[in-house]
Amino acid sequence: MLQNIGIPGLILIVMLALIIFGPSKLPEIGRAFGSTLREFKQSTKGIMDDNHDKDK
User: Fold this and answer.
1) Which residue intervals of the chain are DSSP H helices?
2) Which residues neighbour 26 within 8 Å (Cβ) at sequence distance 6 or greater?
3) What are the backbone dihedrals phi and psi of residue 6, each rounded to the nearest 5 degrees, phi first?
């Protein structure tokens, strides 16, 4: 899905985010998105490890 965006699409998304949220809110949104993504990866890894342990 995200493979088809390309550089122009990415620039457009960043510009829209700047217009909508403003430059002062973007670092907060980026940190929140990063921590959410990190938690999702950790929980997914935990689920995969649990399933792998059950298979043995």
Assistant:
1) 6-21, 26-55
2) 17, 18
3) 80, 175
The Cα 16–Cα 47 span in angstroms is 36
How far apart CA 27 and CA 49 sit, in angstroms, is: 33
Q: For residues 28 and 35, what is the distance between their CA atoms, to the nearest angstrom?
A: 11
Buried b / exposed e across 11-24, counting CB within 10 Å, b at 16+?
A: eeeeeeeeeeeeee
- In single-letter form, the type of residue at position 35 comes to S
Q: Which residue has the tokens 């002062």?
A: 24
Helix (H) or strand (E) holding 24: none
pLDDT digits (tens, 9 = 90+) for 4-56: 778 888 889 889 988 998 888 888 988 999 999 999 999 888 777 766 666 55
